C-alpha cells in the first residue's frame, strides 16, 4: 500500500521534471502529497475474507469483456449506419448504462441476501 503511494509521488515528480504539462504534474504531486500528509502510509490493509459483502468488480469486468467480444464484431459486421466505426458517438452512454445496471443488480442482490439472513 505504501509502495503505491510512494511510486505515485515519484512518478508525479518525474512528470513535473520531464513533462511540458506542468499543471497535470502539479495536480499529481498535490494529490500524492496530500495522501501522504493525511496518513496514507500508515493505513493497514485487511484480508479479503474479512469483508461480509463485495461489489464484484471482477465479475463486472468479465461481463464487460464478454459484451465487448460479442457486440464489437456485431457492430462491425452489421452496422446501423454504413459509416459507423467501432466506437460510435454514444459509446460512453452505453458504458455508463452497463456500469449502472450492473451495480444496481449487485446492490439489490446484496440487500436481498442481508434481509434474508435476519
Rg over CA atoms: 21 Å
Q: Helix coverage percent of residues?
A: 55-70%
> How much of the residues is beta strand, in percent?
under 5%
Low-pLDDT segments:
none
Number of domains: 2
Structural class: mainly alpha
Main beta sheet, described? none
Order of helices and strands: HHHH
Contiguous helical run count: 4
Q: Tell how many strands the DSSP assignment holds.
A: 0
Determine the mean pLDDT.
81
What features would you describe in this structure?
By secondary structure, the chain is mostly helical. The protein has 2 domains: 2-42; 51-116, no CATH class. It is 68% helix and 0% strand. It is built from 4 helices and no strands. The chain has helices at residues 2-18, 22-37, 57-77, 91-116. The mean pLDDT is 81.
SSE arrangement:
Layout: H1 2-18, H2 22-37, H3 57-77, H4 91-116
Helix pairs in contact: 1-2
Question: What brief labels describe this structure?
Answer:
118 residues, 2 domains, single chain, mainly alpha
Could you provide a short overview of the structure?
This protein has two domains: 2-42; 51-116, no CATH class.
